[in-house]
Amino acid sequence: xxxxxxxxxxxxxxxxxxxxxxxxxxxxxxxxxxxxxxxxxxxxxxxxxxxxxxxxxxxxxxxxxxxxxxxxxxxxxxxxxxxxxxxxxxxxxxxxxxxxxxxxxxxxxxxxxxxxxxxxxxxxxxxxxxxxxxxxxxxxxxxxxxxxxxxxxxxxxxxxxxxxxxxxxxxxxxxxxxxxxxxxxxxxxxxxxxxxxxxxxxxxxxxxxxxxxxxxxxxxxxxxxxxxxxxxxxxxxxxxxxxxxxxxxxxxxxxxxxxxxxxxxxxxxxxxxxxxxxxxxxxxxxxxxxxxxxxxxxxxxxxxxxxxxxxxxxxxxxxxxxxxxxxxxxxxxxxxxxxxxxxxxxxxxxxxxxxxxxxxxxxxxxxxxxxxxxxxxxxxxxxxxxxxxxxxxxxxxxxxxxxxxxxxxxxxxxxxxxxxxxxxxxxxxxxxxxxxxxxxxxxxxxxxxxxxxxxxxxxxxxxxxxxxxxxxxxxxxxxxxxxxxxxxxxxxxxxxxxxxxxxxxxxxxxxxxxxxxxxxxxxxxxxxxxxxxxxxxxxxxxxxxxxxxxxxxxxxxxxxxxxxxxxxxxxxxxxxxxxxxxxxxxxxxxxxxxxxxxxxxxxxxxxxxxxxxxxxxxxxxxxxxxxxxxxxxxxxxxxxxxxxxxxxxxxxxxxxxxxxxxxxxxxxxxxxxxxxxxxxxxxx
Length: 684
Ligand code: ADP
Ligand code: MG
Hints:
- The protein starts with 15 loop residues before the first helix and ends with a helix.
- Among the domains are: about 45-145, CATH 2.40.50.140; about 250-275 and about 290-410, Rossmann fold, CATH 3.40.50.300; about 445-600, P-loop containing nucleotide triphosphate hydrolases (Rossmann fold).
- By secondary structure, the protein is of the alpha/beta class.
- α7 (about 205-235) crosses α23 and α9 (about 260-275) packs parallel to α10.
- The protein is built from 24 helices and 22 strands.
- The chain binds adenosine-5'-diphosphate and magnesium ion.
């Protein structure tokens, strides 16, 4: 008896080798196999009279073989089998290359169905290497909509298809119904069995759509339940209850007054901290909106309550920057602050770890090193993580598992349209900083093409002479991607710039450098020891160089709008008038109008919405960036409506069965738990 967890080896025709190939695709069990949905479909359902087929069309024809197939050997390694087929309307010539067995497999005077591309017209139609089956067998590989699967070495479409067919036959009856009956009815979704059958082998496109809609809903519903359940557990979970401190002292110590948005965010978070439940809050705000100050106020409040805070940054250099910013805010109160990263000396590490264990530090700032297994916290009350998109759901929960359930604050500069935020942060409460500190300079943005190169160089020279620094960003080139001609690598561009400006100090930082080397180059730029920094997008994540007044982006068409906006946020952070120049030689209205959006608006949320509209969410959020598990069928933006419905249904269900422990919710619970297992793995 097959079960869903049975290994695919169980199937006929799947031996050790093929099983291993399936493993490469992430398919281990029959259940995995059934959830291995086709990448696309090929419409072989339409069978046309030969005379009605169009040149270039992929189509089925039903034909009688009119002559005995002839095998011709052209040369070593190349032979062909040729014959003609006819139907009532016309005729076509069929040719198979290097398939000599066709000569004996296809017989004159018998009828077959052929699927393939028609070439030519009139009496000169032909098909090359068409799929072929006997007329009686029609519905096997012709005359229907065929699934097309993702493959890897050792597998072909036929093998996968046959395996899926067997899997469906063996398990169709025992497929669990993940969706609660009430939800399924209310949303008018088809049953699981029907959905799995038709996503693989749809009878027609309408059926396929019905199956797809159900599976998208299911996927999003499971995700929403998982996140909602996490949130519910947290709310019910006892957290350290803080006494609300009088913040006046803190605000008054600052060289400026906080914006209303900053006050509000701090207030919302303080409410969580004093509620008795564990806080898990996201502060979202455009670059420069002052998120660090919000964190500082809360760290201060924790300290007032005798608790230590840990501040985690994605890179060493950012940890260093946060150390100096936070020290400026907090050290005047006598708070004890240290930095702990990969490069901290062993001796210092020992000291810091001992102090943390004894509860003798008030704030520790660092990278992932903060949460390595050997770091113990005596009185950890608050964990702050910067640039949330670098950390996945799984990592977040690992954090929370540290010590005695600390409160968690995550900060993100990626503006996310509401619909997406709903699901992405389903397990978080959100505060939005929608107001910039006063006096923030607008960064003048221009889109130019190569013809401006000389003027641009002149501008760089002039700014550098005034003592300003300049960022130049080149697109990241994937290691295995062939360098398209018009693309310059960061290194090459840096060399050219150094030649053009012998009097300036040009440095380069790119993704293939070791973290240490990168940090050294960045640190030199921050310290003002270099004038021009050429880089791939590694600087995107928030280094602060107030003296930088110009951001040049090469091949700007290769970047997403939100990404460009983030890059632009790296300048205009000091007192100097700043510019952003987007260089692109790409032709076309589309590129122009995209870049124009940036020239016109400085508002990150507007940019994000336009970006989503123009590019679609597939690009907007690689699943890796969002920290969410990979979606099999759903497209987070395009399916936004289903997303909203799934979210609502999930919340409603969780109200009635918060732990999902009613017997009828068992299959759902199983799926939710599987999701956590899978995503926890992918973050290690
Ligand atoms: P981000 O949200 O991008 O992390 P930061 O926290 O780095 O922004 O703040 C950007 C700059 O604005 C910092 O130099 C910070 O000191 C300053 N800043 C923050 N809040 C205010 C405020 N209320 N008034 C004036 N300047 C502020
Ligand atoms: Mg920041």
